[in-house]
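This section describes the prediction task in plain terms. A model, or a person checking by hand, is given the sequence of a single protein chain and must write out its three-dimensional structure as a string of tokens. No templates, partner chains or ligands are provided. The sample shown here is typical of the held-out split.
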Amino acid sequence: MERIDHMEHLDRHLVDELAQVARETIREELREQTRKQRRTAMLYATSGALALYAGAAVAVAVGLALGIGLPDWAAALITAAILGVAAYLVRNAAKPHPARPGRAHGSLPGSAPSGPSTGVGAPVPPMPRTAPDAHLPEAAGTTRPQDAGPSDPRPQV
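The expected answer:
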């Protein structure tokens, strides 16, 4: 019995050692990935700051060019309006747009619509405009499915 207890102790010790090695390996890998991501983020931030200064220089140049033929206040106002319109257009380009009726999201104007999207990449087959049993003779005193109103909540394409 003493031998089994000794083996269990060795097994526990081995499991603890393996867990420690695994933790240290994962920590080191995460540190390395974090260093790479930190460097990438710093380069993106620097690039953004430089682009901001470049945009400011262009705005000053536009204001000075307009200031040749206009009063300074009018040149500054026009420059501010141009920057405001540019900011509005960029913001609208960044916002997701809902799919327009009759056109799937992402399709080009003038291209054939691919049908409503289910969100998983496969288009939904189009629904028929009439009920499948509309061509069958009706029993006396029954209402047709078309008279009962639309039962499908999806919009017809």
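For orientation: The radius of gyration is 34 Å.
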